[in-house]
Every structure is written in structure tokens, then in C-alpha cells.
Amino acid sequence: MEIWHRVTINAPAESDLLKMIENLTLKKETLQLPGGGGLLVLIDIKESDSNWPVISNLISTANAADMKETYFNEEEIRNAEWLRLIPTFERGYPQPKSHWPLKQLSYEIICPQCAIYKQIAPMHLAKEPFLGKKSFMSMIWASEIFCVPEVFQNLKTIQAHGNQVWEALIHKSGIPSERVQQLYIPGITSRGIIFEDELIRKTCPACGITKYYPHLKGEMLLKREALIPDMDFLLSNEWFGHGLLAWREILVSNRIAKLVLDKGWSGIRFKVVKIV
Ligand SMILES: [Zn+2]
Question: How far is the CA of 60 from the centre of ligand 1 (A)?
Fold first, then answer.
């Protein structure tokens, strides 16, 4: 596991901070701030880097912005009992795009204020998507996952549990896509994710549901009792997102991750979920 940080530091002109940053031997991007106000310094750094303790200290002392992201290597993924499936290939917007995500045929909106929802009908695509060599795709704003027929054939072969095939409709014609179908996941875990205190969350005043900001740092912890036995696909009980963005995490079993790696399919990646 490697935790990466994108650190953004506002360094005033001729400040000690700026001199100190300039002396660091690491790759950085700088942007001149208007009016000679100094530099905006962007640093991409992993926690195993020898400079990390210095930068980590700067994040608090220089009040820098810190975006985190975690990458797991293949061995860690193959050894994990459960994983999060993270879409990495987005194509187009769900349709109709206006008023998204409210007023949709695909969603029953449970709360118009925080936009938690239940999918009740097929998703609509703007047009036939071009996937190139990708096997999975998602859409901008939406968390539903779509696959090419080869994926569904192989899931059938290994008798995967907990996934359904839903058509994806081309919006104008209403005809199902010939290239992708939705990998629909009906099963939802019980509440069981253990959140770190630092993860920002907001409880909706209208419905009382708490949405968490994206979980980006390290392994997600999930209590074993939250899982439904004999399933390969589940959605998290907990909601993530902010504003009108709302999603449940897609959870997959070890054998699904192995299948994807063995086949070399792309368009998604995995993050380890530690079952506790
Ligand atoms: Zn709400």
C-alpha cells in the first residue's frame, strides 16, 4: 500500500517558506500567483519518500491543502478477502443530464436534499459508448458500473453471486446498448464500516442520513458481521458524497478481483477492504 499526497502550498514571495521549499530535492510544480504574491507550489509525494516527514510537517505549519489517494499493489489485492471496486474510466453523463440527479426515470430519489436514491429502472446513456480496450466504464456523476459482454460471460462461468445484468438504454432511441450492460448489485451490507474520526461527514437535516466524504487514505475497515454470506458483490450500507452526489461503495470478493487481474481487464481498480 502506498499513500500519495498532493500537497498545495501557498508560499509568499521571498519568504523563508519559499526558500525552504526551493531547497527541497523533489519534483514540484510551481505557479506564479498574480500580482507578485508569491508561488503556489504543488507537490506529489508518497509517504515512503524520504522527504515525507518534512512535507507532512509543512502541511500543518504552512496550512497547506492535502489531497490523499491510496494505491495497492497486485499482491495486496490478490491477498485481500474483500475489496472496493473503483471505476477509473468515465464516459459521458447519465441522461437526461438536466436536473440530475433529481427528476430521473432511473432513480427513485429518497431525499431531494442529499439525493440518496434507489435505482428502479435502467440507466440512460447519451449514445453508444466507445470503450477502446476497456472492459468497464462508469459515467460522470453516477456510480453505476457497466461492463462489456465478456465480463458477464466470465462472471457466469465462475458462478458469481450477487450481480444482475441490467440493460443500459440509449436515451434518444430507448434501445439497449450493444456494447455495455450494467452490472447491477442488489445486495446491501448492514452498517459496518469503521470510520476514522478525521473523515468529514455530514448528516442531512431533511432525512437524517449521514454521507461521508470519499474514503481515500489507506484500507477501509469493515466489520465481518455486515457482510451477506456467499456473495461476491455487495454495496455498502453507508452513503458517500456531498451536495447532490451520493453513492454507496461497490464491494467485491477476492475471486472477482482475481478474475479481473487474471483477465487483464481495465477501466476499474481495487482498494483493499480489511475485514475486522
Ligand atoms: Zn437527505
Answer: 33
Question: Which residues, including other chains, have CB under 8 Å from residue 63's CB and lie 6 or more apart?
Answer: 10
Q: What is the pTM of this model?
A: 0.91
Strands 28-32 and 220-222, by their bridges, are unpaired
Residue 240 pairs with which residues in a beta bridge? 212, 247
Q: Cβ distance 245 to 94 under 8 Å?
A: no
- What's the CA-to-centroid distance between 248 and ligand 1, angstroms? 14
DSSP helix/strand/coil, 259: helix
What is the per-residue pLDDT across 1-10, written as a single tens digit (0 to 9) for each?
A: 999 999 999 8
Host domain of residue 36: 2-71
Q: How far apart are CA 170 and CA 167, in angstroms?
A: 10
Total domains in the chain come to 2
**What is the domain-level CATH number for residue 6?**
3.30.70
Q: 188 C-alpha vs ligand 1 centroid, how far in Å?
A: 19
